[in-house]
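A.,

Following up on our hallway conversation. Structure tokens first:
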């Protein structure tokens, strides 16, 4: 999730500092270099609508073949 967030928010200097600090650890550098990005394929999102209130909606991601 960290790499996904970093990719979506490249201008986030606070996140860049965190990644830089973590890069002091060899294990982190190795894992970061693998560029493995996890995207959830199912789950739930919570939306707060001003009129109807909180809505929790499930989602699933499918690939077309």
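Then the amino acids I'd put at each of the 65 positions:
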């Amino acid at each position: 999730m960290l790499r996904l967030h970093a990719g979506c928010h490249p201008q986030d200097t606070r996140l860049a500092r965190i990644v830089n600090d973590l890069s002091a650890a060899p294990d982190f550098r190795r894992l970061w270099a693998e560029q493995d990005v996890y995207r959830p394929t199912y789950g739930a999102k919570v939306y707060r609508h001003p009129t109807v209130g909180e809505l929790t909606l499930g989602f699933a991601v499918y690939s077309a073949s």
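The chain has one domain: 2-60. Curious whether your intuition agrees with the design.

B.
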